[in-house]
Amino acid sequence: MELNYYAISDLLESSKQANVPLSSLVLQQQAEQLELSEETVYNKMKENYHVMASSIAPGCDPDLRSTSGLTGGDAYKMKCAVEKKANLTGSFLGGALYRALAVSELNASMGRIVAAPTAGSCGIIPAAILTMQEEKNLSEKDCVMSLFTASAIGMVIANNASLAGAQGGCQAECGSAAAMAAAAIVELSGGTPDMIDSAVAITLKNILGLVCDPVAGLVEIPCIKRNASGVAGAFVGAELALAGIKSAIPADEVIITMKKIGDSMSPTLKETAEGGLAATPTGKKLFSCVFGNSCQKKKML
């Protein structure tokens, strides 16, 4: 079986013709390509899902801090707000936010995570799918299968644009992860292939042009909070699509647009830490805190 990972429209058309979820086709194709059984490939993805799930608790440790000392402890704060029912959006979005922060903060603290698709955007997909499982009482199998759909979307983006902040800005990292998560959410919700296309398109459209400007050159500020924003964006795209709202611009065209925007973006805004938030007065002070002795980090934070 041949699946075209150069166009989302082709993938979704194959799903329509076979009358099965996209994840089923991707699992079958990957097993054939790798010359492994579908069970073996599925179990490998399940292992990834277990690593994602196991990242939440340590990421919510109130004493967790990154090596730089710049970040840590925010997932705990968000989780406490959710548990106390003190947040504005309830356990659904609130749960997604603290899970996204947890995985991202664990990454910054050198914990074990799954690059999904990158380390800088590692919190978005786990937060989306784990929250869906918790809130919708979904089976682990369905959640693991949705990762195959997310992966297929990521492969199309990688083949046509980029997944790297150094090449396309944060739209290529958190944007791609959010689009992948949106596709998984739609499949987990029983949405149609056309809804997946719209969810991916809407999610990416809402994050086009996002720059990569890590303070002090570290994947912490503002990267971690952008993971929280990214999972929120994934749910926005999925919600709109599931309601029957169509994207005027198809996903494949949005991906090409993302590439063009990334290509025209200044190098100072592509992971060089020479522009954006990294170049602000506070950003520069934080750089000195990490790599010099000009101030005390605790006072800055």
Give an account of the 3D structure.
The mean pLDDT is about 95. The chain has helices at about 10-20, 20-35, 40-55, 55-60, 75-85, 90-110, 125-135, 140-160, 165-170, 170-190, 195-205, 225-240, 250-265, 280-290, 295-300. It is built from 15 helices and no strands. About 65% of the residues lie in helices and about 0% in strands. The chain is mainly α.
What average pLDDT do the residues reach?
96
Q: What is the element string, with H for helices and E for strands? A: HHHHHHHHHHHHHHH
* Class computed from helices, strands and strand pairing: mainly alpha
Helix content: 55-70%
Are there runs of 5+ residues with pLDDT below 50, and where? Answer: none
Beta-strand residue fraction = under 5%
Global Rg: 19 Å
Strands, count: 0
Terminal-residue CA separation: 54 Å
Largest sheet: none
Q: What's the tally of helices?
A: 15
Principal-axes geometry comes out as: globular
Key descriptive features of the protein:
single chain; 301 residues; mainly alpha; 15 helices; 64% helix
Topology:
Blueprint: H1 8-18, H2 22-34, H3 38-54, H4 56-59, H5 74-83, H6 90-108, H7 124-136, H8 140-160, H9 165-168, H10 170-188, H11 193-205, H12 223-242, H13 251-264, H14 281-291, H15 297-300
Helix pairs in contact: 1-11, 2-3, 2-8, 3-8, 5-6, 6-7, 6-12, 7-8, 7-10, 7-12, 8-10, 10-11, 10-12, 11-12, 11-13
